[in-house]
TrEMBL record:
SUPFAM superfamilies on file: NAD(P)-binding Rossmann-fold domains (SSF51735)
Domain of life the protein comes from: Eukaryota
InterPro entries: Ergot_Alk_Oxidoreductase, NAD(P)-bd_dom_sf, NmrA-like
Protein name listed in UniProt: LAQU0S10e01904g1_1
Annotated ranges, domain NmrA-like: 10-237
Alphabetical list of Pfam families matching this protein: NmrA
Organism of origin: Lachancea quebecensis
Length: 294
């Protein structure tokens, strides 16, 4: 049996490091004293990581030949792929490179309720990658994260100018989670034993309607904020005119339809069970980002 390495002896690779969540994972791992490398597509994109003492490897998930050197000598990796129509192939390139390099543990950020029979295309795409990871024989941990609180930023302008949140979610409730908590959770399962070959679903501490979200925000910013439900087709057309691509529009349409039907009305204890503290409340999220909304 091989010896269990301490975190300071392990080499971690963060894939998707330039996203907010990936950057949070890289910085969180660095704080544990670990040897951390961020995969970036150019030296320029790697500069912020170098400034914080994080190594960089230049590579591109769409170019498999660039990945072998990035994964060489890596013990564990966090892999996050972008939400586009190439996501399953990009993850496939990453897990193949990881397996060939002998990476011992892969932590993958999946999507809420990812399943082959899910009613949302993004969840079905993530299910493909989840299945490939499980079948790869590599020790895995899969994190299925709920609707990000940060998605509320899309309403920041109208909150500031009109005191209104326009969303096509009807009266549906959601177990929203702060994306900062996703990074914290990922660092925990990467650096502690006991999470091997497990799948977690992480949520915020409460399932809330947008009306309840607006009420919480009103208290934080000291002015009345109202939720105004928008028809889904109107919202999608507005987003189309704003320049969103068809694949993203399809993803959003599916989620809006399902969340309006309370598909997201649930919370789990997985975050607290692993991290030991409650996930961030909506009030705390708004307090931390008050300047964006007031």
């Amino acid at each position: 049996m091989s010896a269990i390495l301490s975190n300071s002896e392990k080499a971690f690779l963060v894939v998707g490091a330039t996203s907010n969540i990936g950057a949070g994972v890289a910085k969180g791992l660095k704080k544990t004293g670990s040897n951390v490398t961020a995969l970036v597509r150019s030296e320029e994109k790697g500069k912020p990581f170098k400034d914080e003492g994080i190594n960089i490897a230049v590579g591109d998930l769409s170019e498999p030949a660039t990945l072998a050197s990035a994964f060489k000598g890596i013990d564990a990796s966090f892999i996050l792929t972008p939400p586009n129509d190439l996501a399953p192939s990009l993850f496939s390139n990453a897990i193949w490179a990881a397996k060939q390099a002998g990476v011992k543990h892969v932590v993958r950020l999946s999507a809420v309720k990812a399943a082959h029979d899910a009613p949302t295309i993004n969840s079905r795409f993530h299910a493909l990658s989840d299945s490939e990871l499980i079948a790869s024989g590599t020790t895995y941990t899969i994190i299925k994260a709920h609707f990000f609180m940060q998605n509320l930023l899309m309403a920041a302008d109208t909150i500031k100018s009109e005191g209104k949140i326009y969303m096509p979610l009807s009266d549906g409730k959601l177990g929203l989670i702060d994306s900062r908590d996703i990074a914290t959770f990922a660092v925990k399962v990467l650096t502690e034993q006991g999470h091997e070959n497990k799948t977690y679903t992480i949520t915020g501490p409460e399932s809330l309607s947008m009306k309840e979200v607006a009420s919480s925000l009103s208290k934080v910013v000291g002015k009345n904020v109202e939720y105004v439900p928008v028809p889904i087709d109107v919202a999608i057309e507005n987003m189309r005119q704003a320049g969103l691509d068809n694949f993203t529009l399809n993803i959003l349409h599916d989620y809006f339809v399902q969340y309006s039907k309370n598909w997201g009305d649930f919370v789990t204890s997985d975050y607290k069970d692993v991290v030991g503290t409650d996930s961030t409340s909506i009030e705390k999220y708004f307090e931390d980002n008050k300047q964006v909304f007031e």
